[in-house]
Amino acid sequence: MSIGGDGGYGDERRPGPGAGGRVRTRTRLPEEDVVDAYDDPRRQPVRVGRSMLTVVGVVALLIAALAIATRGGDGPSDGRRDDGRAAPPTAPTGERPVGTRVGGIPAGFPETEQGAQSAAANYAVALGGTGMFNTAERHRIVDNLYTPEAAARLKERQDEAYSPDFLKRLGLTPQGEAPAGMTFVSRAIPVGTRVAEYADGGATVEVWYTSLIGMAGEDSTVPVTTAWKTWTFELRWTGSDWKITGDSQQDGPAPVPGDDRAASAEDISKAVEEYGGFTYAR
């Protein structure tokens, strides 16, 4: 997770300096007028066109499908553990990434708090990738990352969510592939992790991440957009690795968007093809 004037992405230029040489900053809120930090009456409210409403609707469907198999629920979000103790430092611990992979997914994480966090971050990457949109590949990923009991429950719900009709709305084939000349983007990029609970061979780990999702191409109706979410994983130590017994997602925390100019569809497609991901270590 079509850009540019011909790809569905905006080609909006940065606003020039305001009165007194100051750069003006606006916050755009959905379904509301523009909120101007300087209360400039010359500014006009943003009009939402039908094409943008269509894009928003399809993206909303995508987010719903990605979350439908999770159990929901809110966890503590005040930077403290469940027992009231302050969260540990967020600086990297110096632990090395694992060197083992199973089906292309990092594996063999140690039975430590750091190992649980590293596992959760890498699992979020795998579960947020394009492989989840192909039935066979999705089943393989789920079988690798979840306990057998959890995998059996999850696959049935996911098969219903990733239906051929849903994939068609995203512009994908029934096999989850993008049409010729288009690039489907789905990536989860962890920003940080937090151990909410750790005891008796189990761990609850929260992964704060940003994602890229959408279709890059000149005729795309679902442009690549970003989102910020927190993914909570319930992990169990199985004797050789951490496995997921359950997971849930909630929105945010999301920072204020910057003033970056959207890239073209060609640039996004090229970046996705040329820039690889990482193996994460806490």
Summarize the structure.
Keywords: Membrane, Transmembrane, Transmembrane helix. With 282 residues, the protein is an alpha+beta fold.
Topology:
Layout: E1 26-27, E2 35-36, H1 50-67, E3 100-102, E4 105-107, H2 113-127, H3 135-145, H4 148-161, H5 164-169, E5 183-199, E6 202-216, E7 225-237, E8 242-251, H6 265-274
Antiparallel strand pairs: 1-2, 3-4, 5-6, 6-7, 7-8
What would the keywords be for this entry?
282 residues; alpha+beta; Nuclear Transport Factor 2, Chain: A; four-stranded antiparallel β-sheet; two-stranded antiparallel sheet; 26% helix; disordered N terminus
Q: Can you put this structure into words, describing what you see?
A:
Keywords: Membrane, Transmembrane, Transmembrane helix. The N terminus is likely disordered. A four-stranded antiparallel sheet has the order 5-6-7-8. The chain has a two-stranded antiparallel ribbon with strand order 1-2. Helix content is 26%, strand content 23%. The chain has 282 residues and is of the alpha+beta class. The protein has a single domain, classed as Nuclear Transport Factor 2, Chain: A. A hairpin with a 2-residue loop joins strand 3 and strand 4.
